[in-house]
TrEMBL record:
PANTHER family in the record: BITESIZE, ISOFORM I
GO MF entry, a single one: phosphatidylinositol binding
SUPFAM superfamilies recorded: C2 domain (Calcium/lipid-binding domain, CaLB), PX domain
Protein name as annotated: C2 domain-containing protein
Domain C2 span(s) in chain numbering: 65-185
Pfam families listed in its UniProt record: C2
Top-level taxon of origin: Eukaryota
GO biological process, one term: exocytosis
Length: 196
């Protein structure tokens, strides 16, 4: 019963944040889903909506620019193809060394985090090249425009402590079958101490 209610609630919230702008962007909805500073600190309870719909729907990535990522995105036969090509302009780690960067993707909304895909890590570079294709199958055309790519550039660390180097949310509302979108996307950095 609890699982069914959880699924129903997740569905309701998803439809709420993807509703018409006068509903989705009203002050009540925005403040309810927008994380508070205490939610961002390590060791505290975080927002139970793992995909942070408030950030996806209304707020561009905040903070300083932390580099750029080049992607090739296309859609064909209910499959979304995302080629992670290059990243340029990443910053060195706090100790001054170059990161071991890799890219992690989620296709939002994704409350159970089943859409995670990631590239291999590059070694000691601020300008890695990947040319890795990440594929999402079973995405109906009618659902595609409601999806958002959440891309995070992270550096591999010891003891599973990975450092966030930058992130971006890319809405797919203009994506159409047969169209190929190749572009650079700015990576933002909201918090310098972010890890995951």
């Amino acid at each position: 019963m609890a699982d069914r209610r959880k699924d129903e609630l997740n569905g309701y919230v998803w439809h709420l944040v993807h509703a018409a702008p006068e509903v989705a962007q009203c002050d009540l909805i925005y403040t309810f889903f927008h994380p508070l500073p205490r939610d961002e600190r390590p060791g505290t309870v975080v927002n139970t909506l793992q995909n942070k719909p408030a950030e996806v729907s209304w707020a561009p990535v905040t903070g300083r620019v932390a580099g750029e990522v080049k992607l090739s995105i296309s859609y064909k036969s209910d499959k979304l193809f995302i080629m992670v090509m290059h990243i340029r302009g990443l910053q060195p780690l706090q100790d001054g060394t170059d990161p071991d960067p890799y890219v992690k993707l989620y296709l939002l909304p994704d409350p159970q985090k089943t859409s995670k895909r990631k590239t291999k890590a590059a070694k000691r570079t601020c300008n890695p090249t990947y040319n890795e294709m990440l594929v999402y199958a079973g995405i109906p055309r009618g659902d595609l425009q409601q999806r958002v790519i959440h891309l995070r550039a992270l550096s591999e660390g010891a003891f599973w402590e990975n450092t966030l180097l930058g992130e971006v949310f890319i809405p797919l509302r203009t994506m159409t079958p047969g169209h190929r979108w190749v572009d650079w996307h700015q990576l933002g950095m909201g918090r310098p101490d972010a890890t995951r």
